[in-house]
Design a protein that fits this description.
Elements (H helix, E strand, L loop, with lengths): L1 E6 L6 H17 L4 E3 L10 H7 L6 H13 L2 E3 L4 E5 L2 E9 L5 E6 L5 E4 L3 E4 L11 E4 L4 E4 L8 H9 L2 E7 L6 H17 L2 E5 L16 E3 L5 E4 L5 E6 L2 H10 L2 H4 L12
Length: 273
């Protein structure tokens, strides 16, 4: 099946972001994409100072638009971090997924908050405004089961391994790495998660905006279970496409059967919630 990743240029105007995003979703659908993903924070600038201002409840304006365009195009739509979600007085970094009938299939709240400090490079602390999610998020399609993470979640190999154990063959991470961590770890982490679990890994970033307070790395990417980069964007707004070949995934698992060779008598990782 064909996967499309929309590397959207995000402005400070929510309505413009929503309109452009829906237009690019329609374009991707017209080119045969069955699963379409939007980047982290696609409807608002990324930054702790913006989260409260742009926050919405779910359902709300942004998720309603996503539901409508998913139904119109009859696709599976992964809504990036569609919005900072407000719920019970708390804010979450939340990704929603809608099916071809417009129904919400999954809602992933970012589990691992992005709190880092690299002297002379970047300091960022999501926990100043956001609360962490407390659950794994998967959804079924006629093609395969898909696991969800958001950005910093990709650094935690255990999360991807749980998804693999639960039968996911594609992991999608809307993310916004920056100009420090992007060139160092963006592709490396994707290839590691793909090889470790023999799955496809897709990451979808906002386009780079040098004038923004937080500058995203861009380079939305798809990696196959062999660890090969099979599609990759540059820094600008674009849509990239790739065909997910589940036959190739099965062949790789047969050739190197690590999933059946794990020593569960010696070690193991389990999902607690």
């Amino acid at each position: 099946f064909r996967l499309a990743l929309i590397q959207l240029h995000v402005s400070a105007v929510k309505s413009d972001n929503l309109q452009r995003a829906c237009g690019l979703v329609r374009e991707a659908s017209a080119k045969g994409a069955k699963v379409v993903a939007l980047p982290e924070c696609f409807n608002s600038p990324y930054g702790t100072q913006y989260f409260k201002e742009y926050a919405e409840k779910i359902p709300g304006e942004s998720t309603q638009k996503l539901s409508e365009v998913a139904k119109e195009c009859s696709i599976y739509l992964v809504g990036g971090r569609s919005i900072p979600e407000e719920d019970g007085g708390k804010l979450y970094n939340t990704c929603t997924v809608f099916g071809p009938d417009g129904a919400m299939l999954a809602k992933h709240r970012k589990v691992h908050l992005f709190d880092i400090s690299i002297p002379g490079k970047i300091q960022f602390k999501e926990s100043e405004t956001l609360s962490p999610g407390n659950s794994f998020s998967m959804f079924d399609t006629p093609y395969c089961k898909v696991g969800l993470g958001i950005c910093y979640d990709i650094r935690f190999a255990e999360m991807a391994q749980i998804y693999g154990q639960k039968g996911c063959q594609l992991l999608i991470y809307p993310g916004a790495f920056n100009l420090t961590t992007g060139p160092a770890h963006w592709e490396l982490l994707q290839r590691g998660r793909a090889v470790d679990n023999q799955v496809y890994v897709a990451t979808v970033s906002p386009a780079r905006d040098e004038k923004a307070s937080y500058v995203a790395w861009g380079h939305s990417t798809v990696v196959n279970p062999w660890g090969e980069v099979i599609a990759k964007a540059g820094a600008e707004e674009t849509v990239i496409y790739t065909d997910i070949d589940l036959k190739k995934l099965a062949e790789i698992r047969q050739q190197i059967p690590i999933l059946s060779q794990k020593r569960c008598d010696l070690y193991g990782i389990e999902m607690k919630k």
